[in-house]
């Protein structure tokens, strides 16, 4: 079984996880997406996949694209 089969987000509107921007009105959407992530049994696998795959859009593993970029940058430094 693939980790995606167990993901809590599979029952949600995919657009929730792809806010336009990471500030202003998008902050509420990001927090709503993270609330789903925080109740997900595969949140770690999701975040790991997004980091390994260089996923540059959306909320994955409760991390925004900007947070993943910062994480990659710190890891490479």
> Helix segment count?
3
Major sheet description: none
**Secondary structural class:** mainly alpha
From the alpha carbons, calculate the radius of gyration and give it in angstroms. 12 Å
The helix content, as a percent range, equals 40-55%
Task: Outline the structure in words.
- This protein is mostly helical and 77 residues long.
- The chain has one domain (13-76).
- The protein is built from three helices and no strands.
- It has helices at residues 26-38, 43-52, 65-76.
- The chain is flat.
SSE arrangement:
Blueprint: H1 26-38, H2 43-52, H3 65-76
Give the key terms.
45% helix, 77 residues, 0% strand, mainly alpha, flat
């Amino acid at each position: 079984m693939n980790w995606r089969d167990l993901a809590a987000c599979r029952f949600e509107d995919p657009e929730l996880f792809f806010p336009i921007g990471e500030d202003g009105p998008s902050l509420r959407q990001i927090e709503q997406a993270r609330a789903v992530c925080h109740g997900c049994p595969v949140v770690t696998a999701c975040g790991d996949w997004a980091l390994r795959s260089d996923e540059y859009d959306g909320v994955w593993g409760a991390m925004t694209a900007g947070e993943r970029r910062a994480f990659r940058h710190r890891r490479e430094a």
